[in-house]
Amino acid sequence: MQQISAELEKRLGSAVESMPPFPKSVQRVLELTRDINCRPKDLVEVIEKDPIITIKVLKVINSAYYGLPNKITSIKQTVIYLGVNTLKNLALSLSTIGILPSNNDADFDIQHYLVSSLVTANLVRLLGAKYAPGEADPTDCYIAGLLHDFGKVVFALCMPEEFSRALALSASDKLPLHKAEEAIIGADHTVVGAMLAKRWQFPDSLVECIAGHHGRTYASSLAECLHVADLISERLGYDSNGNISAEKSAQALPVRFGQDLDVVMSELGDLNKVIEEARMFSRSEPD
């Protein structure tokens, strides 16, 4: 993690403390699904106790994206159609969406950020399954992609003037945003994002992955998958601040992925489906 002054650490800590807590119901869902003895009915019971998540899940599964012949009216039915893992990821995504602000004083594009995060989450999951089976936990893969850039949201809400200047510097000088943040704020979004993940009581492995995702070394197979997913998201036009970094694109891939990003992308199949699902999830707020 970057070395920062005690004063800046205090400021970042205050910013993190001002963020809303991660929903306890979804934390419980994650705990349950890490238990090999977890039954689908246990998952259903937890989600059904959260009416907001229940409404959002039902809206998604009844959307045109799934095209089901009959309307689904319960979480129990949803498990049958989606399966436990998809339902879990959906609940996690919808909870994260619920925390995001509708606007911010930094003029950070939250909608683009959201779609980018959802795209990256699915890419990390796909990469973990294909290139690190048995090493990278599918749930951790999804969470890592979903939350890896959440520090940008903290900056946009709690340090909007400085973050706005960092965005402008990144755009004008074609500078990676994390370097512009270091220049303007004194720390980048990985620092505050890791602090938030720790406050939300995610595993240390995830906290470390978020903290180090702009580094040149990787602490785990999960971190390697996140790095490559980030590169693919950028190639697809879903870098979460909308800028293309030539430096990032030129970085070598971890050994397990070979040397050609285009080959990796082709082996993942139709990535348009990943983007379509991300866009659909991002529009899941209830009417």
Written account of the structure:
With 287 residues, this protein is mainly alpha-helical. The protein has one domain (6-282): Orthogonal Bundle (Hypothetical protein af1432). It contains 17 helices and no strands. The chain has helices spanning 6-17, 24-33, 40-48, 51-61, 75-82, 84-99, 110-131, 138-147, 150-158, 160-173, 177-184, 189-199, 204-211, 221-235, 246-249, 261-267, 271-282. The model is unreliable at 242-247 (pLDDT under 50).
**Shape summary:** globular
Assign a percent range to the helix content. Answer: 55-70%
- Our Rg estimate from Cα atoms comes to 19 Å
The unreliable regions are 242-247
Structural class: mainly alpha
Features:
17 helices; Hypothetical protein af1432; 65% helix; single chain; mainly alpha; 287 residues
Q: In short, what is this structure?
A:
The protein is mainly α. It is built from 17 helices and no strands.
SSE diagram, text form:
Layout: H1 6-17, H2 24-33, H3 40-48, H4 51-61, H5 75-82, H6 84-99, H7 110-131, H8 138-147, H9 150-158, H10 160-173, H11 177-184, H12 189-199, H13 204-211, H14 221-235, H15 246-249, H16 261-267, H17 271-282
Helix pairs in contact: 1-12, 2-3, 2-6, 4-6, 5-6, 6-8, 7-8, 7-14, 7-17, 8-14, 9-10, 9-12, 10-11, 12-13
